[in-house]
Amino acid sequence: MMGRSILIFIVSSIIFISSCTDEKQDPAAFTVLYADSTGLNFTNTITPSSDFNMFTYMYFYNGAGVGAGDFNQDGKIDLFFAANQQQCKLYLNEGHLKFKDITTAAGIPTTAGWHTGVSVADVNNDGLLDIYISRVSGFEMLTGHNELLICAGIENGIPTYKEDAAAYGLDFSGFSTQAAFFDYDMDGDLDCYLLNHSVHQNGTFARRDLFKGTYHKESGDKLYRNDASFAEGAKNTNFFTDVTKETGIESSAIGYGLGICVSDVNVDGWPDIYIGNDFHENDYLYINNKNGSFTESAQSAFMHTSQYTMGVDIADANNDAYTDIVSMDMLPADPYILKRSLGEDPYDLYYQKIGYGYGFQYTRNNLQLNNGNGSFSETGLYSGIAATDWSWATLWLDFDNDGWKDLFVSNGIPKRLNDIDYVNFVANDTIQEKIKAQNVEEKYLALTGRYPEIKLPNYFFHNVGNMQFDNWHAKIKNDMPSFSNGAVYADFDNDGDLDIVTNNIGDAALLYENNTADTNLTVQLHLQGMPQNSQACGARLLAYKNNQLLWYEKTATRGFLGSMEIPMHAAFGRVKPDSVFLIWPDNRYERIVIDSNHFQTYTYNTALPFFDFNTLHKDAAFHSPQAKDITAQTGIIFKHEEDLFNEFNREVLMPHMLTSEGPALATGDVNNDGLADVFIGGAKWTKRSLWIQQSNGTFVEQPMPTLYNDSTYEDVDAAIADMDHDGLNDLIIASGGNEYTGRSKELQSRIYKNKGKGIFERIHSIFDTIYCNASSIVVMDWNGDGANDIFLGGRSIPWEYGALPQSYLLENNGKGQFKDVTAQKAPSLMHIGFVSGACGADIDADQDADLILSTEWGPIIIFKNEVQKFIQTNATNKNGWWNCVETMDADADGDLDLVCGNLGLNSRLKANANEPVRMYYADFDNNGKKEQLLTYYLNHKEIPFANKDELQKQLPMLKKKFLYAEDFAKATLTDLFEKSSLQKAAQFTADYFENVVLLNDGKGVFTIQSLPWQCQLSPLQCAAMIADDHHKKTWLLSAGNFYENNIEMGRYDACYGYMTNLQNGIVTEPLRNVLLKGQARKILPIQIGKQTAYIIARNNETLMVVGF
Fold first, then answer.
1. Mean pLDDT in the chain?
2. Which residues pair with 919 in a beta bridge?
3. Which of 252, 392, 431, 726 has its CA 20 to 30 A from that of 695?
4. 1086 pLDDT exceeds 50?
5. Are 1018 and 381 in contact (CB under 8 A)?
6. Element (DSSP H or E) covering residue 9
7. Hey, what long-range contacts does 968-972 have (CB within 8 A, 24 or more apart)?
8. What are phi and psi of 314, to 5 degrees?
């Protein structure tokens, strides 16, 4: 105790000295109080033995939970702590953040078992809070069952308890994690979802369909329906009935359940369930069918989830009345820990799991933004909460009562089981035999002491709006690193703000006293519910405030192993809400008044009306025109099918693949009937397709035997234009794909001459001599002679990513014959960089066509047409990973602006001018082949993005130089690579990743305008302007996503299409009525009858036609 006090003194002194030197330092938002102050001297002490340890039970160090509630009904919130190997403890709140241990007086069982989660609820509806404790039982030497502590009464301020799980049918024995009590069938009483977890001894890594419909007695989740009779005089015994099978709950051996939360995620008045699963099994999202059953919808709702999901919580983070979901994982924020820890699965194993039926998962915290249309956009990297290391409890609560929910995260584990050196130790054949034989000797346990025990501070993320969060670590006074697991929040001192308590391994419980209580308006609602639900579990509060909808739900089980049956706490900032509605668990509601009275009590009334949840649906508040998917009525049936080619087998250190840039898309009249037709390109070995528009607005596929013969090509861009002055529009296709190398014919772009009636024939052209992995093709009359010229953009040199490709300016002699004039008319264009997109337009209003390029590792570049020369200028000097550039009058001022797609801000890569992302390109191992070295800054330190395994796979010299991951993690960039090698390498930088509009002043000078935050959640790949004639506005339709990344980078998949209005205030909304899933590559307008529609080409997906 003295040693800890001295350490606190030192830390406090440092804080004091720092405050003296910085007068502007913010006051502490929270102060950590320790056991000598609070009386919370509970410590979860875990002692391994040769019989039971982390080798025999993989969740040995997951810790235990904590529950909060007013157990003695004195108006103060008390605490119950679970222990893994000791007796659980109950502490009464004596006021002023002082607690008293009443475990013995309360009759808490003295049996020591492997307790895990704590759930607080009035299970028998007598108005007193009961405690349900989950346990691991029937495994190794662990015996017993889950415990239900029924409150028998309160005498002299002391509640007493009797263990009675068997009488209620809740005496489950198995691998229990946590329970949630809620009314799933809306019959008025509380049912029970029991979250359980598997262990690897079950042999669970196999095809997912093998487990579908199976039920595991000890590991599978359970749903118990409350069948109690509430008739007068009835005896409540054995009234929880197992209804797992008939309700559609997954209960197989692959349910590694660690997190559970209940929320009405689709705002229909019925509770839904989110389950966080560890390891390879998908998380579950159970949507309530309102008939006593659920539909598991995670794979359709989420584009990806956390992989090793631990704690979860659900709340409305952006004040739109739709609840958002946060899940915890273990991506480190510290570069040293990151580099000595296992990362994502190798590429082949990752996609083997996908082939087995598992979903896309990544080892980082996820924040699923609820779009209000059944879809979620994962924003964790953008939001700044993705990396908190080995994290457990996550809790949404309003730290400072400003009306925005903030995020608390507990973390830390005594033995880092993902440490690379530890994993290699455990993989030793001798150790594996010992584990299998359950004979891990003491000497081997002692060896684990050499592996890292790194205590970590808990995280406090303050919501600053727009789904972004600031790290409040500096605002936590007396903070100390810990191994924190279960956590709860409550207003323990009744001062109007929420405090936090954690259950820790090896240290006494921590209490974070909230110091932010001020003049912000708050309320704590004490609800007296219906007879079968005394605490009104499931109640909601809706507040209208300016343009916000503040939404609160009364749900006890949250985070990790924790539960809070406390008054409903709501905060509104400094502005009083316009109106507030209390919605009871059965969906009856009443309007309430929020005043200066901090504590308010309401009693359920059956005479109240029912709330209409349709009033909250997002579509009613939208301003943009509603989209309609008209693909089926056009008759166009086409699915682009990408060929599988893993570029990472060839160039391990590439940041992303370049083989999925298609499909090509072009529109134009190919049969001279005055109607626009459609060409859609194909990938290698697949069909490309030409669709001829009919007079009734439908399309008929035109046979294209010549194109079918060229199925080994990959079509990435295309144009339909008359190239030989014969009055017929020809077809020009850019070939790419980055698969073929050297002088492969598949790197030749092609021209198909229109022979009339939509019949095409490939002709010999200048393309026969150009071998280019192309990204784009632009057809326009550059020199004003009436003949269409061609620009061909070079994307990369296959198998040499980092070497600059060549781009081409090809001049038409008027007869469809072309000459390469790049060196004469635009010499700097020849090796301008990695061209990702291009377009032609008169950008400076001088009556000739200019060329605009988007480049990767470069800026947006304009080649202004100045008579016989193209003069290079940059529209912006910001180097990015620009994907596309489109010209349109975005601000409706009469000139052409540039919509520029970039990486976006929802990535592990962050860049600015001082700390850019870099790629060094050199032959680092002197084997005659150059490698890419991608670096970025983490905590202001430049480090390789690739992990140890990836680097040494490409550069075996590093394995010899750094045998242990610990040494690799300590190494600086110049320790890994000689400084001279880095200096000699070709260097590429990116310092800006936002998606933007470059606003034209009318003279070709541009001002950068970032697109709204929603448009930064994924790479923008294409855009189009949509006319809203009804409201006399134009809207920018933007779309994107990109999947083929290194697994450590993860898929960029958060965009479903956005509509943005840049006039009279910027407004961005999700695309209405149409989910634009997948990787959109091109959007082109097309006239179909009297309607302007938009064709959207998606990689490896069906083509869509959308009208407005």
1. 94
2. 934, 988
3. 726
4. yes
5. no
6. helix 2-21
7. 968/339, 968/340, 969/335, 969/336, 969/337, 969/338, 969/339, 969/340, 970/336, 972/941
8. -135, 130
